[in-house]
Every structure is written in structure tokens, then in C-alpha cells.
Amino acid sequence: MSFRSLNDILTISKENNKPFWRVILEDDMEERLVSEEESLEKMNRLYMAMKDADAAYDDKLKSAGGLVGGDGAKMERALREGKVLSGSFIGAVISKALKMGESNACMKKIVAAPTAGSCGVIPAVLISYEEQYGASMQRMVEAMYVAAGIGEVIAARAFLSGAAGGCQAEIGSASAMAAGALAYLNGGDEESIAHAAAMALKNLLGLVCDTVGGLVEVPCVKRNAIGAVNAIACADMAVAGIRSQIPPDEVIDAMREVGEALPKTLRETGEGGLAATPTGREIKKNIHNL
User: Fold this and answer.
1) What is the C-alpha to C-alpha distance for residues 177 and 161, in angstroms, rounded to an integer?
2) I want to staple 197 with a disulfide (CB 3.0 to 4.6 A). Which of 147, 176, 225, 263 is the partner?
């Protein structure tokens, strides 16, 4: 893929009267020299892999560090029992985000979207939408292209890894991708897609990567939940006509600048933030003594 600007995608979309997702589809066809059917089939496989990973969640598993496991099931149970304030859709999204993050920590098959540490955000939002709103598989695949296009631009203008730019580059990017996809599914136009992504990334600007014990377990799994819920809020705001005062591409550039300014201790080294608390240091010591 070749896009380095969300504005470029919007311009091509407007000039050619093509939806955001189709611009990305056709770019993929050109970049990989594949047919439309081949591109669609691959994206369908990726989405189905997300659904399979969601269905394969095992609440009995514990992660290598023993820090996570079973929380997705707890959230799902609380939802069934009517104990949550967030409602059926957001409650389901939180549960699925936790489940996927736990599955990653337990070394189960997931889809890195865009990274393994942020793998729960996009599937939690999209699968929950499909299940609760009865969207067709074609619509879900189209939403995947929307998410992919946003991720492509973020990767080109900034970064997607916690080691490079902190957790804002992982959960923040995933949240932006999910927000744009959800805005599309909920009837938003191309401008709404871009601004949903921008607002989601803005809300998580500066989020540090402070893995406790150096493991992608704490606080990573629960941050998937907040990234997913943030995506819903931003998609709703964008579809309502609310816009980011800072243009979407400039928001991405700001994320890059903030990430470059973060000290090494807050970029996936396990040396700062929550990892450096007394409890965080104790957990690290216990893990290394296993």
C-alpha cells in the first residue's frame, strides 16, 4: 500500500466518487498485483481469523507471567447478570477486547491488528457490531479495509509499535482504526471516518508503554478495553457531525512527535511507569524467579 495521508484517500474518494474502503481495496490490488476477488478473499480470511480467535477463548488459561486470564469471562458473566452500566453493546465490546488480549498473552492464535499487544480493539468492536446489528459479511469486510487504510497512513507517518512510540502507537492506532471502521458501519461519510480516527488517536495521545515485568500482560490487556470503548465514543461523535479541530493527518504527526519525545523507560522496556512501581518491581522479580 502506498498512502501516506488520510487527506489523499479522501481526495481520491471524492474525485472518483468511490467509498473510502474501495480506494483501499483498489490500492491493495495494485500494490500486490492481485484481483479484486483475491484481495476480498484475503480480507475475509483475516476477519474470519478474528472471529475464530474470539470463539476459541479459554477462560481457564493463564498467561506465562500468571498476571492475566479469565477476566473476559468475568465481564461477560457480569453482563449476563445485568451488573454493568455500559449496556449490551459496550459491555460485549469490553468483554471481547479483554478476551482477545488474554488470548494473546496466553500464546493463542490472534490477528495482530495492528500489533499483537493491541489485538483486541478492532475485533471487539467489529464482531460485536456484526452480532448485535446483523451486518452482512460484505459490510464487515469493507469496514476492515477502512481500518487497514487508516493503519497504513499511521504506519507511514508515525509508527505502530510500543517500542518506537509508546502504547499510543499500539492501542492508540488500533483505536483510531476501529473508530473509522465503526463510523463507516454506522453510516458516516469519508470525512466522518477520518475524524473518528483523529479523535480516537487524540484521546490516547501520550499513552506510555510500561509493561510490567516486560510482558505484554499488564496493563496491556485492559488497555485493549479502553481503546475499544474510546473507538465507539469517537465514531459516535464523528457520525453526529463533530470534528477534530486539528486535521487528522496532523494528529498522526503529533503522535509521532510525542512518541519520539518519550523516554526509553516508557517505550516497552519495562523500566518506567507502572513497571517501576514497588508492586511492578516485585512482580518482575517473582516472574524471573519462576
Assistant:
1) 15
2) 176
pTM for the whole structure: 0.97
Q: To which residue does cell 526509553 refer?
A: 264
**Domain coordinates of the chain in residue numbers?**
6-288
Tell me the CATH number for domain 6-288: 1.10.4100
Residue type, 115: T
Distinct helix (H) and strand (E) counts, the chain: 13, 0
Burial of residue 46 (number of CB atoms within 10 Å: 0-12, 13-18, 19+): middle
Question: Which residues face 267 on adjacent strands?
Answer: 209
Nearest to 283 by CA among 265, 274, 61: 274
Task: Tell me how far apart the 2 most distant CA atoms of the chain are, in Å.
Answer: 61
1 has a pLDDT exceeding 80: no
**Helices 171-185 + 20-32 axis angle, to 10:** 120
Contact, 54 vs 123, CB < 8 A? Answer: yes
The region of weakest confidence among 43-47, 241-245, 285-289 is: 285-289
Predicted confidence (pLDDT) at residue 290 exceeds the cutoff of 80: no
